[in-house]
Amino acid sequence: MTVAKKRLLGLVLSTFLIAPSVFAGEITINSDHSDPVPKKAMGDLIAAFEKANPDIKVKWNNFDHEGYKAAIRNFLTADAPDVVAWYAGNRMEPFVKAGLFADVSDVWSANGYDQQLKAAVPSMTIDGKKWGMPYTYYQWGIYYRKDIFAEKGITPPKTWAELIAASAKLKAAGITPFTIGTKALWPTGGWFDYLDLRVNGYQFHMDLTAGKIPYTDPKVKAVFEKWAELVKPGYFIENHAAIDWQDAVPQLVQGKAAMYLMGNFAVATMKDGGLKEEQIGFLPFPEITPGLPRAEEAPTDTFHIPAKAKNKEDAKKFLAYVGSPQAQSTMNATLGQLPVNNQAEKPKDVFLEAGFTMLSDAQGLAQFYDRDANAEMAKAGMEGFQEFMVKPDKIDAILQRLDKVRTRVYK
Amino acid sequence: MSHSATQPPRRSKTYREGLTPWLFLAPGLLMFIIYVLLPIFQSIWISFHDWDGLGEKVWIGLGNYRELLDDDSFYVSLKNNVIWLLLYLLAIPAGLAVALFLNQTVTGIRLYKSLFFFPFVISQVVVGLIFTWFYAPDFGLFSKLFEWLTGQQLAVLADERYVTYGIIVAGLWPQTAYCMILYLTGLNNINPEQVEAARMDGAKRFKLLWYVVLPQLAPATFIAMVVTVIGSLRSFDLVSIMTAGGPYGSSQVLSYFMFEQALSEYGFRMGYGAAIAVVLFLIMMVFISLFIVRMLIQERNA
């Protein structure tokens, strides 16, 4: 038999044998690492995994970030890959409840991740089982202009009274204290979360976002009363409802505003805008109710195994690898975010280091309003927050409307 | 024997008048049934359920519709749809005005015509983005102009009082161009003899336009009306691009409300979305039936 004939035979055979094309040792990963930096981090992760497991081949389908949110619902039910990227907390809950994610508690216990990934245990657990593998998170907090603060003689506020005093001083000097862009709604969630975490504490906030507490509760109203102390004197930039979060950054860069409550990803945009590292300061959200244990916002990104995955064995190997200290160190060095594994190398970036210290002794980690609350509730809630930031006097009507949504959604 | 001799021609006759048209219609009809008719009935069926698109459908009867009647966002959307419908019709006289203006022979008129037609050629998404920048506070052309004139800042897209009108203006830009092109073709077909005759009889300006030109443009007006009414009810892309329904839902329209409830990141209420779609469908049905009835009457008369 000549070589050509052999090839032909091989071709014919392979066409006939196309059905079991997913041979053991191949896993398919669907993810939404479409931006340049996450794409590189993910590519490196896969390469390193294949090197460590030469018998496993990875097929990676990279989706556009927005399209992925709709696509995942289709491919989880129809043609499930072996590993999917998603988010922790209540964001994964619908898939867990619909039986579309597989229980991976054994991967955690076999690798000692219950200890190493302790920070993410609450947000990965539903019904006492773990449903995925966290690989990165990042902190939220107030980023401020160090040079402006120094010029006006303001020390970074540690309490609510100090924050109000600093804001008044800035406003008097013609600088808007806070910049924000609420067109996409979610930036308002950061404010609500932090105010609620500082006024009422972690457990209350979790109960509220889980729908156990009515929005008409006086304790919820107290949160908005604190918020109004910033909204009513005009401590936020005008017209924030017309702009996106990136469009709010120039205000900070041009010195028209001095503070920005945001996730750590905003630092890159600030630097792109022309701010130097020494001009940017980071401060944890100030204390409001004295003595309340400090909880922070730290949205976590995760990998999961679909219940209908064809090659769960190798998918679990991938999850185990993603959880490991070395994989998380490398990946997060590229991402510019924090590793969840507490054995991983500490980040070298000054803001990440500040975040790492802040998160490591936090009492609890919230995932962000639109991940902790049910999706429908989140949408209505954030719309209400936006309306409140424009018309603070309508608070009672807004809260009543939110509670109407809550009673319907969490029935 | 004679029996069998008469049969073939008769069969071929039934073939010609009975089956053949259907055979030719079949591909189109099949597509129409699969992609238009069936989804309509499916939507209506889904609208009676509570369904997140993943789990089991739960039959709740008219529950979705009952909730709709108690939903403030629904009334906001409905109100905005009415505003859209009324103001969008302005595209027809505006398009006629531009068409009359451009219907002359000057050097380079083709270039001017194409420039006026340009907004219809570019995608609605691009139109939305252009107008978003136009209205943008601090650096937008409109904002700068407004600030220069009044000394105040106005963020059109962040103000619930003006946001819908701001988006409609953006929508009128391409729609006017569309109506213009319809009228330009209409003007080409005008009988010059009639105009001549009217001129001789002393008809001038407005009278000439109203009694001689416009009646001849009736078919163009009819088509312009149909596309504008349906276009206004489908207004989705501009709302999605420019405000995503905001601020706090005040620029919602039914089509975007439906998308948001059923398909967006925060939605996946398929039943509720379907119920909104059914309401929108019924509203459209009123207009579509009116147009179809008119068209049938015209065809019968012709």
From TrEMBL, chain A:
<feature type="signal peptide">
    <location>
        <begin position="1"/>
        <end position="24"/>
    </location>
</feature>
<keyword id="KW-0762">Sugar transport</keyword>
<dbReference type="InterPro" id="IPR050490">
    <property type="entry name" value="Bact_solute-bd_prot1"/>
</dbReference>
<keyword id="KW-0813">Transport</keyword>
<dbReference type="GO" id="GO:0042597">
    <property type="term" value="C:periplasmic space"/>
</dbReference>
<comment type="similarity">
    <text>Belongs to the bacterial solute-binding protein 1 family.</text>
</comment>
<dbReference type="InterPro" id="IPR006059">
    <property type="entry name" value="SBP"/>
</dbReference>
<dbReference type="Pfam" id="PF01547">
    <property type="entry name" value="SBP_bac_1"/>
</dbReference>
<protein>
    <submittedName>
        <fullName>Multiple sugar transport system substrate-binding protein</fullName>
    </submittedName>
</protein>
<keyword id="KW-0574">Periplasm</keyword>
<keyword id="KW-0732">Signal</keyword>
Automatic annotation (TrEMBL), chain B:
<keyword id="KW-1133">Transmembrane helix</keyword>
<keyword id="KW-1003">Cell membrane</keyword>
<dbReference type="GO" id="GO:0005886">
    <property type="term" value="C:plasma membrane"/>
</dbReference>
<keyword id="KW-0813">Transport</keyword>
<dbReference type="GO" id="GO:0055085">
    <property type="term" value="P:transmembrane transport"/>
</dbReference>
<dbReference type="Pfam" id="PF00528">
    <property type="entry name" value="BPD_transp_1"/>
</dbReference>
<feature type="domain" description="ABC transmembrane type-1">
    <location>
        <begin position="77"/>
        <end position="291"/>
    </location>
</feature>
<keyword id="KW-0472">Membrane</keyword>
<dbReference type="InterPro" id="IPR000515">
    <property type="entry name" value="MetI-like"/>
</dbReference>
<feature type="transmembrane region" description="Helical">
    <location>
        <begin position="21"/>
        <end position="41"/>
    </location>
</feature>
<feature type="transmembrane region" description="Helical">
    <location>
        <begin position="82"/>
        <end position="103"/>
    </location>
</feature>
<comment type="similarity">
    <text>Belongs to the binding-protein-dependent transport system permease family.</text>
</comment>
<feature type="transmembrane region" description="Helical">
    <location>
        <begin position="208"/>
        <end position="233"/>
    </location>
</feature>
<protein>
    <submittedName>
        <fullName>Multiple sugar transport system permease protein</fullName>
    </submittedName>
</protein>
<feature type="transmembrane region" description="Helical">
    <location>
        <begin position="162"/>
        <end position="187"/>
    </location>
</feature>
<keyword id="KW-0762">Sugar transport</keyword>
<keyword id="KW-0812">Transmembrane</keyword>
<feature type="transmembrane region" description="Helical">
    <location>
        <begin position="115"/>
        <end position="136"/>
    </location>
</feature>
<dbReference type="InterPro" id="IPR035906">
    <property type="entry name" value="MetI-like_sf"/>
</dbReference>
<dbReference type="InterPro" id="IPR051393">
    <property type="entry name" value="ABC_transporter_permease"/>
</dbReference>
<feature type="transmembrane region" description="Helical">
    <location>
        <begin position="272"/>
        <end position="297"/>
    </location>
</feature>
